[in-house]
Design goal:
Helicase, Ruva Protein, domain 3; globular; five-stranded antiparallel beta sheet; about 500 residues; about 15% strand; 3 domains; 18 helices; alpha/beta
């Protein structure tokens, strides 16, 4: 109804996955980078999760478009299958002939194995993409794992991309699926769009649809981002309704009042967008989960996770005092850190650093001089002399440069950053690390210690010649993984 009125030749906010409207936000690009690294690695499984409507299908389509021409892809869009049905569907997708009547799991597996070996001999890569994978039965996932056992000395003959809602992560934590979970070489949890991306998303789709001018004023864009919580599918629905409301009102642009009308229509008259429950939340047992060490090696350096914090080994240049000397941060400081990453409020009685792993983030903690901490340009927590905790999210709310003490940083997990995969020579994580050092104009022919020393001297980091916490955090902050930056406005929370 409103196309001619606004000078559009097609609907700009249809929820159909039209390739011409493909828009990769910063977070979609991060997800794509993680998955691309995973396909280059040695493992068999790649995991992409996200809430409904965050753009998982968009990322998967972009990933498939980047695959080499010699790649054969099997799509499973209906995961409500048993093991036999899964094997038969894979045969159908790959064009493998088999006896449909009475085919056994062994017969179908043998057919697939022969096909995969023949494809490898012809230098063809085989990829299976499963959407809505949270609905897969555990025995079906185990059947997939068995299929990925077929491999050469260097490569898996079958790669599996699992796409699903956050429940998929819970499914993969089940004990009977621990072998499969260990084979996931890349994983990414897709978060909603940030405000700047929502604005670009809206204007991009309008431009593709033929708009010659902006059709949403600044107040409308701000309100629709808040109402949609940055979820692309909900953005589409709200923007479509808002355009119709502006048309009915005979207004040349969409204003905040039209977004309010759209929200009321979409939510059945409630008038507000669906939000996270606002029950009291906090962090009461941040450090009392016990000490469990997970060693993650990067050639000559190790970063160790102790309890819910990620500490460095004692011989590292960045160390921390004993855990008994550090009181657990109070909710306000931790919630401010979570908010800086646009995360929901941390749940009560939940290990914060374990909780953020589901968002592909991790904690790095240590002790350092403040002028070195701010080199990462990331929001952080400081442990003050009186045992209070200060959240610092602004560049103009910092202590003196000569301040030295304990800190906590949240950073994005690098691709393949797991206790097992990171130790494997040529792993996805080590490839990522080598690429980051190369981008800093360091010579790969030099020993790693020398490369790190040059980097630390050049960037004003503590010179340890090792991949300590701050060096890793700095590399992550400079990479495509990025993260929120310290703002120029006051953003400090202090809790005693």
């Amino acid at each position: 109804m409103y196309l001619n009125y606004f000078g559009l030749h097609t609907e700009p906010f249809s929820i159909a996955p039209d390739p011409q409207f493909l828009y990769l936000s910063e977070r979609h690009q991060e997800a794509l980078a993680h998955l691309s690294y995973g396909l280059q690695g040695s493992g068999g499984f790649i995991l992409l999760t996200g809430e409904v409507g965050t753009g998982k299908t968009t990322v998967s389509r972009a990933l498939l478009e980047q695959l080499p021409e010699h790649t054969q892809t099997a799509f499973i869009l209906n995961p409500m299958l048993n093991s036999i049905e899964l094997l038969a569907t894979l045969c159908d997708e790959f064009g493998i002939d088999y006896e449909a009547q009475g085919a056994t799991a062994k017969q179908l597996t043998d057919k697939l194995s022969q096909f995969l070996l023949a494809a490898h001999a012809q230098n063809r890569q085989c990829v299976v993409l499963i959407d809505e994978a949270q609905h897969l039965q555990p025995q079906v996932l185990e059947q997939l794992r068995l299929l990925t056992n077929l491999e050469t000395n260097q490569h898996k003959l079958l790669r599996v991309i699992l796409i699903g809602q956050p429940e998929l992560q819970d499914l993969l934590r089940r004990r009977e699926l621990r072998q499969l979970a260990q084979r996931i070489t890349a994983r990414y949890h897709l978060l909603p769009l940030q405000f700047a991306d929502s604005e670009r998303y809206i204007n991009y789709r309008l431009q593709v649809a033929g708009a010659q001018r902006g059709l949403f004023d600044a107040s409308a864009i701000k309100k629709v981002h808040q109402a949609s919580e940055g979820i692309p599918r909900r953005l589409n629905l709200l923007c479509d309704r808002a355009l119709l409301a502006a048309y009915n009102d005979q207004q040349p642009v969409v204003g905040a009042k039209h977004i309010k009308i759209a929200v009321q229509e979409l939510d059945g008259g409630v008038g507000t967008a669906t939000t996270m429950p606002q029950s009291p939340r906090g962090l009461t047992n941040f450090l009392n989960r016990g000490l469990s060490l997970i060693v993650v090696a990067a050639i000559v350096a190790s970063i160790v996770a102790v309890g819910s914090w990620w500490w460095l080994q004692p011989n590292s240049a960045v160390s921390t005092p004993a855990t008994t000397q550090i009181e657990a941060p109070k909710p306000a400081a931790v919630e401010a850190l979570a908010h800086a990453w646009q995360l929901p409020k941390p749940p009560i009685n939940t290990d914060f650093c374990r909780w953020i792993e589901s968002f592909e983030l991790m904690c790095i903690a240590g002790s350092a001089r403040y002028d070195q901490i701010v080199k990462t340009n990331l929001p952080h927590l400081l442990v003050l002399a009186d045992s209070s905790y200060q959240f610092v999210g602004s560049s103009n709310q910092q202590p003196a440069d000569n301040w030295t003490g304990d800190f906590v940083l949240v950073v994005a997990q690098p691709p393949g950053y797991t206790a097992t995969e990171a130790e494997v020579e040529g792993s996805v994580y080590q490839q990522w690390l080598a690429q980051q050092l190369k981008q800093q104009s360091l010579q790969a022919s030099e020993p790693l210690a020398q490369q790190l020393q040059r980097l630390q001297v050049a960037k004003g980091l503590s010179v340890t010649s090792k991949l300590d916490a701050l060096t890793l955090a700095w590399l992550i902050s400079q990479s495509e993984l990025g993260g929120p930056k310290l703002s120029a406005t006051a953003a400090t929370t202090e809790v005693h």
